[in-house]
Amino acid sequence: MTEKLILLGSTGSIGTQALEVARNQNIEVTALVAGKNVSVMENQIREFKPKIAVMSDESAAKELKLLVKDTSTLVLSGEKGIDEAILTDGDTVLNSIVGIAGLRPTMTAIKNKKTLALANKESLVTGGELVKKALKETGVKMLPVDSEHSAIFQSLQGVPDGMIERLLLTASGGPFFNKTREELKYVTAKDALKHPNWDMGAKITIDSATLMNKGLEVIEAVHLFDIDVDKINVVIQRESIIHSGIELIDGGMLVQMGVPDMKLPIQYALTYPYRAPLNERLDLVKLAKLTFFAPDTETFKCLPICINAIKEGGLKPTAANGANEMAVELFLKGKIGFLDIADLVEKATKAQKMVDEFDLEDVFNADKAARELVLSSI
């Protein structure tokens, strides 16, 4: 069980909920890492009193340093600052940094033999083979924080090896469920940010609307659970009550259910293998029904693009992820349409050459090339 926490991405949705868990479970927070949100970080420093606080943005770090000069917290910035945060005496690193920016910190945490609670799916999407190799070499434990992968992980507890037929990966369907491509031509970022069930950051909410998030989670599941992609079944579960699960070789299914809230998977990763009290309850009678649908992969092309990318392997998933990060940024700025996101992801993925072996720098080069292709295509 976590005693001292190093939290990467502390001012985001996962980060703020992780601090709620830390507060309730009396977990000491030794380091905090964020991007630019100085005001939230200042409040976190004053409450949790970490040894180190890092802002990835240098100007934000300078501002924060002045605001908390009356505290004992050391304020740092950039990648070197993140490395210093990971080197503090925390026993668990919870990585909730958004995007491929979380890959280097993931590798640093593993190298320094910290238990890794992973909410940064891009670490496995882009560098899955490298991450798994590092885990094997160091013996470090990695625990999933994404609600779907946590649900699968929870369902697997006590199940003997060789008993799994396939994984069930559920999706809400996002705000555009049942919409046609014609109806999606002119939707705006404001429309796409209206998620029916979850309160998340902008990037992941757009990914949910395109089903890219589910595609990334399929790739993540392949690496997390060492399973063939063809044994992962994606199902739309509109109420977001069944968070995912497993199907056994005898046809039985084990699933994890709960309210659409991230505190439970965060807490389970931090208290594993123990369960701690949490005031989140599901009222099945009030819920009344659960609905299930097959994903519309003709309209929402990002999901099959990701599945094909992991089947082909190499740096194809990296290209898909990089193109998506760039395309979502452009969509949020109103520079491209909603349907353009999938088209650009597909174009960049196809453009990425096949490679059998690669290192960390190859990953970042492929990511850069995919982003440049997107920018040159608009």
Helix content: 40-55%
Number of helices: 17
Q: Report the uncertain regions.
A: none
Q: Largest sheet, if any?
A: 7 strands, parallel
Average pLDDT value? 96
What coarse outline follows from CA principal-axis ratios? Answer: globular
How are the strands ordered across the major sheet?
4-3-2-1-5-6-7
Q: How many beta-strand elements?
A: 12
C-alpha-based Rg, rounded: 20 Å
- Hey, roughly how much beta strand do the residues contain? 15-25%
Structure summarized in a few sentences:
This protein has 378 residues and is an alpha/beta fold. The protein has helices spanning 13-24, 38-48, 58-67, 78-86, 103-111, 122-138, 147-156, 181-184, 189-192, 202-210, 212-225, 263-271, 284-287, 302-312, 316-332, 338-351, 360-376, and strands spanning 4-8, 28-34, 52-55, 74-77, 92-95, 115-118, 142-144, 164-171, 232-237, 242-248, 253-257, 292-293.
What would you note in describing this structure?
The chain has 378 residues and is of the alpha/beta class. The protein has 17 helices and 12 strands. The protein has helices at 13-24, 38-48, 58-67, 78-86, 103-111, 122-138, 147-156, 181-184, 189-192, 202-210, 212-225, 263-271, 284-287, 302-312, 316-332, 338-351, 360-376, and strands at 4-8, 28-34, 52-55, 74-77, 92-95, 115-118, 142-144, 164-171, 232-237, 242-248, 253-257, 292-293. A hairpin with a 4-residue loop joins strand 10 and strand 11 (253-257). Helix 2 packs across helix 3, helix 10 packs across helix 15 (316-332) and helix 16 (338-351) crosses helix 17.
